[in-house]
Structure formats: C-alpha cells, structure tokens
Design a protein that fits this description.
It is built from 3 helices and 34 strands. The chain has helices at about 15-20, 25-30, 310-315; strands at about 45-55, 60-70, 80-85, 90-95, 110-115, 120-130, 130-140, 145-150, 165-175, 180-190, 190-200, 205-215, 230-240, 245-250, 260-265, 270-280, 285-295, 300-305, 320, 320-325, 325-330, 335-340, 350-355, 360, 375-380, 385-395, 400-410, 415-420, 435-440, 445-455, 460-465, 465-470, 480-490, 490-500. A hairpin with a 2-residue loop joins β31 (about 460-465) and β32. The protein is mainly beta. The protein binds 2,5-dideoxy-2,5-imino-D-mannitol. The site of 2,5-dideoxy-2,5-imino-D-mannitol (DQQ) has 13 residues, from β1, β5, β9, β13 and β17.
C-alpha cells in the first residue's frame, strides 16, 4: 500500500488522478473499518456531509453530497455524486464539482440543489471564498455526469444590503409559473435565523424580495425543542398533502445544532407558520436534510449522520460521515410529519425471524436475532407508566450496550417518550455518550410501532412516525451483536420481526470515480 494522507493539502491544484494517487489507501482503510455502515451510503473514503442536488431525473435518483476525497476532514469541499434506480444500491459517478483554482468557489463548493431548467440540469450551490459563501450556478451534460460552472458566478454578488447577517448560504430553488424562486439560508443579527427570498427569470439574475420568515434567536436554549438558532442552514420548502413545510437546520456558532421544520402556509412572499417541530431527535446526528419529490409523487428525504467518535479515531479510520437511509415523508394524523425508511430497502432483508405475541420479561429473545446489520420491527403495547427497552449492539457480558427506551406517560393521555441511552454504548471515553430523546404518539390502547435499523455505527430509530438517529462505536464490535428486550411494568410485544440486512458494497471503491 502506498502512503496515506491524514492532513489535507491546502493547495488548490490537487485534482483528479493526482488526488487519487495521493490518497491511495484511504478507501481501503475505510472499507476495513468495523464501524463503517454496510447498507447505508457512505463516500468511498474521506469526508462526506450534506446531501445535495437530490433529484429523480429520467427515472434515476441522483444523490450529490458534500465531499472531501483527500481526507476525513471538512476542507475544500467538492460535490460527490452517486446514482441509483432503486434507492437501495448506488453507483459512484464522477465528482461533479471541484473547488476552482480561482473564482468564488476556490475554498469549497458548499451545499445546493439541482433544478431542471427547460431540460438543462442546473446546480445552484454556495461557492466559498475565505469566510464568505455566495450563490453559484453550474450546468450539466444530459447524463448529469459533467458540469460546467457559469462564467458569471457568483450569480448574486452579495447578501441583501443594509441587513446585518450572521451567515448566508444554502439554497432551495423552485419554479413558480414563469419565474424561478430561491431561498438562501441566513440569519439577521439580533433577531434570528431566516430564509431570504429571491425571484429570477433565468437563474442568473436575481431580485431580492425579502425574508420569507425569521425566527426568534432569543427563545430557548441550544438544542432544546423551541430553539431555532441564529442561522438557518439548508432551508427546504415543500408541500406534503395540503400542508406547507419549511425545513431548516438551526445553527449557532459553537453550539449543538438540530434539524427543525415549521408547518404552515406558504403565501406569495411569506411563510405563515402554524407549528414548529423537530425533524429528528438525534439532533446533529441527522443534519442538513434535503428532500425531493420523486416520479411517484413521494417526498423522499436524506440527511447527514455525522461522526460521534474522536478526531484521531476518525482520521485513522480514513472516512467520516454517513448518508441516512432514504426516508419517506408523509403527513401524520396529528399534523406533524411521519417518517419511515422507503419500502425499497426491504429488498435487503435476509434470514427472517418472527416471534409470536409475548409478555416482555418472560421469554428470552431468540438467539437467532443478533448482528450488526439488522432491521428490527416491534409492535409494543405498554400499560400507563411502563417502559420497554430494546438493547442492541450488546456484548455477551453486557459491558457495552445501546438501549432504545420507550416509556408511556403514566396519565395514559396517548403520548410517551422515546429515549436512546448510550452511556454504555462504548468503553471508549472519547465517544459521544449523550442521550437523545423526544415525545412520541401512542395509540389509545398503548400500542406503538418501533423500527430500529442497526448498521455498524449507524443507528436509525422510528417510533410512532418520529425519528431518532445516532452513532455508536462499541470497542468490541465483533462481540457487540446481542439484542434484548426487557421491561419495567406491563409490556406486551404483539409482534417482533427481525432480519439481517445484506450489504450494498463488497469492496473498496475508487475515491475519484
Ligand atoms: N454544510 C455545508 C454548508 C451548510 C452546512 C458546508 C450544513 O453549505 O450550511 O459543507 O451542514
């Protein structure tokens, strides 16, 4: 094996075949890492963050992503690109955008979207130069494999005049009659996060309309449900049934971030909010989501699962960042979004094990249910005040274990809490062990459907339509394969179905396809 690069070169000239030679070994290292997920999409090696340019184009799903192919570090971000016809397996495509040697994106091609401009695939993204990001445009070949940056970049020369902003980046672009509309994520100092609205006839020349909606940064504490931050990253405006949704990632310098959404009404130049919701209880473990409407009219969403282990361990591993499983987003009966993995993923299920109904605590789980690539579906019925605990990634001695806990309120009003306990997930003191939790709805009889997808270090949990995403890194990954179900109080398991999930990749992939 040739030498491996841990620090990213700062020169702008490393590209293509040169980069591939410099970082030879990175993708092999990533592939060998026992914490690398096997049925989630990851980059071939190096760094991955936000999903970008998500679209369903001529029957092919396109997933672009924030990518540094040179090192597992957020630096000089490129746009990686992968395609899929089934949302299950992915083909690596040529890197779509490379930071320029000069120009407004010389320090990175940050997040953005793909739109269909009369048949011409067009990317709108944030070019980064120094500490500043500005909107840029690139057009693609008909197969979306080759991209040319617009010589007029940046297409908006500066943020709106006379507004004291905290930041300015990320785009949501859509067609409305004869005009294009665009949102750029931002924040107004002393007020809160916002999304600036623009109009254009040609995607190149934009007229500033005003803030679509502005949050209140003084409300709440970082990470708490009503905290909307000082800046909104990755704004995404879409409609589900008859409800408009404004999704964003609440950000503030140096604090916890989290993804949120407003439900409400988009009316001409404003968004009239109705209620604020959390998109995922994992906070920054499901960040910067982006969604698209596919040819079947489904709203499909991906988010970025960042790492929860120390920087040194990440550098050694040779990779960083996981793309969430594609989620189907619908409107729940309570007016909030309901999320679940797309049904296509069921194709990866193997070795089905099912149990009949049983009282939790009386019957041990079948020994056939164990592993680090699992899809677990459980329907539980809890008495008021009862708690069910599904343990995953457990070592035989119990020294390492991750617990998904569900508690029904004692007053049985129809709600309860989903909590992920990670205090024993890893014996490695550098690993993030903080809990994650949020409210979930129960059926009136105390029933709740729980789905847990375990993919090595990636964990996606869905309960009553709510999502909680996180990362876990047992130090004995080969032994941490146990699964258990226990309870305090009266809990009936109405059904439990478990499958092993087949991997979607069987060898290291080129960093620079
Ligand atoms: N990541 C991108 C930004 C965006 C942030 C840079 C969110 O465009 O605001 O990689 O994770």
């Amino acid at each position: 094996m040739t030498h491996e690069l841990i620090t990213t070169p700062t020169t702008a000239s490393v590209a293509g075949p040169v980069a591939a030679a410099v970082v030879d070994g990175l993708s092999e290292r990533a592939f060998r890492d026992p914490h690398l997920p096997r049925f989630h999409f990851t980059s071939p090696g190096g760094w991955l963050n936000d999903p970008n340019g998500l679209s369903h184009w001529n029957g092919v799903y396109h997933l672009f992503y924030q990518y540094n192919p040179l090192a597992p570090a957020h630096h000089r971000i490129h746009w990686g690109h992968a395609t899929s016809t089934d949302l299950v397996t992915w083909t690596d495509e040529p890197v779509a955008l490379v930071p320029g040697t000069t120009g407004p994106d010389r320090d990175g091609c940050w997040s953005g979207v793909l739109v269909d401009d009369g048949g011409v695939p067009t990317l709108v993204y944030s070019g980064r130069h120094g500490e500043r990001e500005l909107p840029c445009v690139a057009t693609g070949s008909p197969d979306l494999r080759h991209w040319a940056k617009d010589p007029g970049n940046p297409v908006i020369a500066a943020p709106p005049e006379g507004v004291d902003i905290t930041a300015y980046r990320d785009h949501c672009v859509w067609r409305e009659g004869a005009v294009w509309r665009q949102l750029v994520g931002s924040g107004i100092r002393g007020q809160g996060g916002t999304a600036f609205l623009y109009d254009s006839e040609d995607l190149r020349s934009w007229r500033y309309v005003g803030p679509l909606l502005t949050g209140d940064a003084s409300r709440g504490v970082a990470g708490e449900p009503d905290w909307t931050g000082t800046m909104w990253e990755c704004v995404d405006l879409f409609r589900v049934e008859d409800v408009d949704v404004l999704a964003f990632s609440a950000w503030d310098e140096g604090t916890t971030h989290h993804p949120l959404y407003w439900t409400g009404r988009y009316e001409r130049d404003t968004f009239v909010p109705d209620a604020l919701h959390r998109l995922d209880y994992g906070q920054a473990y499901f960040y910067a989501p982006q969604s698209t409407r596919d040819a079947d009219g489904r709203r499909i969403m991906f988010g970025w699962l960042q790492e929860g282990r120390g920087e040194e361990a990440t550098a050694r591993a040779g990779w960083s960042g996981v793309m969430s499983l594609p989620r189907l987003v619908t409107l729940g009966p309570d007016g909030a979004l309901a999320q679940r993995p797309v049904p296509e993923l069921e194709r990866l299920r193997r070795d089905h094990v099912a149990t009949g109904a049983f009282e939790v605590g009386e019957t041990p789980l079948s020994d056939a249910i164990r592993g680090d690539q699992l899809d677990l579906e459980v329907t539980l019925r809890l008495a008021p005040g009862a708690t069910a605990r599904l343990g995953v990634r457990e070592t035989p001695d119990g020294a390492e274990r991750t617990v998904v806990e569900i508690t029904r309120d004692a007053d049985a009003e129809g709600g309860g809490e989903l909590r992920l306990r990670r205090e024993h997930s890893s014996l490695d003191p550098d690993v993030d062990a903080g809990p994650r939790y949020g409210r979930i709805p129960f059926a009136p009889d105390g029933t709740v459907d729980l789905r847990v997808l375990v993919d090595h270090s990636a964990l996606e949990i869905f309960a009553g339509g709510r999502a909680l995403t996180a990362r876990v890194y047992p130090t004995r990954p080969d032994e941490a394969t146990g699964v258990s179900l226990t309870a305090t109080g009266s809990v009936t398991c109405a059904r439990l179905d478990a499958w092993h999930m087949a991997p979607i990749v069987d060898r290291p992939r080129p960093l620079w396809p």
